[in-house]
Each structure stands twice: as C-alpha cells, then as structure tokens.
Amino acid sequence: MKIKSSVRSKLSSHAQTLGMLPVLLLLCLGLAIANDRFLSIGNLSIVLQQASVNTVLAAGMTFVILTGGIDLSVGAIVALSAMVSLITSLNPEMAMFAIPLGLLAGILVGTINGFLVARLGLPSFIVTLASLTAVRGLARLIGNDQTIFNADLPFAVIGNGSLFGISYLVIIAFLVILISWFVLRRTVYGLHIYAVGGNPKAAHVSGLKLTWLTFSVFLVSGFLAALGGIMAAARLFAANGLQMGQGYELDAIAAVILGGISFKGGLGSIWGALVGALIIAVLSNGLILAGVSEIWQYIVKGAVIVLAVGIDKYRLKLSQA
Length: 321
Description:
ABC transporter involved in vitamin B12 uptake, BtuC; mainly alpha; two-stranded antiparallel ribbon; globular
C-alpha cells in the first residue's frame, strides 16, 4: 500500500510540474508532420502573435480563477477598450490619451465587477455574464455599431513592430506572464490570492482581507483585458464593437484550465496559462492550415473546453490521492 501511495504521489507531482506541456509538444509534432508549412518561421510568428492577446487575457483570468471566481466579460472589455482607443486616436489633440483611456475603460469595468462580487456578494458568473452583454452593447453604442478605422493609428507599432525580429505583441505577452508570476509567487499579495482560493474560510479566520482581494483580481482582469484590446486594435488598425473579442473569454478560460489552474481555485501556475494559450493558438492555426471551416473550429474549441474541465477534475483527483 505504501508503494502504491508513493507511486501516486510521484505521478501527481510530475503531472502538476509538466502540466500540458507534453500535449503542446505532441500537438506541434503532429501538425508539423501533417503540414510542412507549420514549422515555417512565418507561420510560427503568426501563431505567437495570435497567442499573445489570449495570453494576456488568460493571465488576468488566472488571478480571478485562483480565487475561485470567473470573469466572462473579458471579451467584451477587449471590444470596449479597442473602440475607446480607436475613437480617441482619431482626434489629433487627444491621440496621446488613446492608450490611457482604453486602459481606463477596462479598469472601470473591472471596478464595477469587483464591487458587485466582493462588496455585494453577487456570484461572479452572473455579474460578469451581465457585464459581457452590457459592455458589448456599450462598445457598439459608442461606435454607432460601425467598424472604426485609423490608417495613421499612433500606437500601431505595438501590433506591427518588432524588436530583434520578435513582435512587440509577443514581448508584451511574455512580460505580462513574467510580472504575473512574480506577483503571484514572490509577493504576499500573491500568496494571499492562493490562500483565498484554496480555503476561503481558513483565509477569513486568519485575518486576510477577502473583500479587497476579491475586488482586486477583477481589477487586474479588467486592466489586462483592456491591454489585450489595445494590442488587438494596434494589430488591425481597427475596432468593431460587435465582432471584436467575440469568444475571447472562452479561449482565455480554456487556456487557464488547460494550463492546470483549477476551477475551484488555489491551485496552478501562471506558466501553465501560457502553455494553455499556446495550445489554443496552435490548435486554431493547425485547423486553418488543414482548411477546416470556421464552424468546425468553434465545435473543436468547444470540445477542447470540455476536455479541459475533464483534465481539471482528473488532476484534482491525483492531487488528493
């Protein structure tokens, strides 16, 4: 019995350490064999750029899910932030405020979400589902339900420039992951977030400020979703309140859960979210290269989300064995 317990403990440790990295590597290997274009420098660059926005959103979602909550509004915040930034940039006298105002839009939505969940005690699922609808409507309203273009976008370099051949989008996404790792693993604030998600009652008894911690993670999520919106707008020179960010919340959730962050909170690493985001991007790219229709891409992504939840449940069983 002791031997079996030891084996289970080792399996659990290895599973938590490696996460979904082996799956990512196997997926890349399979796609490379199936299509010789997959490993081309140009295609890999596209994959990393496609993963960058989702990585930033997944980082914010990680903070929320680690506390046992969820944020369904991030896709709508992407649209709102992008619209605010694009509309502001069209005014030469206000162009310098395009990015700050775009980020402020996300912070305001995060503040409202955090207040309703942390202060009023409303379920995060219901609150952010309502925000998803309301914020999407606001994004459409401020743009008169039209696509906003700006060929002279002042911050276009973010989406189309590079440093030593590496896209700024990729650099920003990696910096977000690095800063998030430091905050979550090397600060008291981060340790408290894990404590809240791991055992809320114990965290409350130990004197942690649960209201503030819960409020703050929605603020982080709103800010990073807004940053993702600015990155997306910078890449496209455009924004659309209806279509932009559609389904991004599902991609972010799938990335986080695939990356090993438990829906129940208190378990997982931000690096896992990065791996999860790369899996989503690689999978999407592989489907496009294979000529799979957009309809089937949605079906496959839905299946991946179900798989992610199943993996999360199995991982929890391993950790409790």
